[in-house]
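#structure-requests
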Amino acid sequence: MNWLTWSLLSALFAGLTAILAKIGVTGIDSNLATAVRTTVVLVFAWSVALVTGPAGAVFTLSRRTWLFLVLSGLATGLSWLCYFRALQLGEASKVAPIDKLSVVFVLVLAALFLGEPLTLKTGLGGSLIAAGAIVLALK
């Protein structure tokens, strides 16, 4: 499978995540819901990693790799905490499009920190995503 297939599957599962999380967060603390979800992700991710690759590979990671993966994990955790709280307070059909503004942030941050081009095409696409998210959130 190529990157597009994996990306579409990611989008499908992210969509399912919003619906399942909205149902699951009903009547409980959003932080507790995030903790339960994170535990499931932790067990699942380690299971997949150990089945598909050598267990000792974790010991070969550089300090730089550890640093950026830890920072990425912290950003993910903060994102999930905010996402679950937003789902608890709002409609999934409004929260999810705003959450997808992350695409716009990625375009800008990738240009600033990774040197990826911010072209007319990416600017227009990012603007359309932002406009769509706003239209969907306003209902």
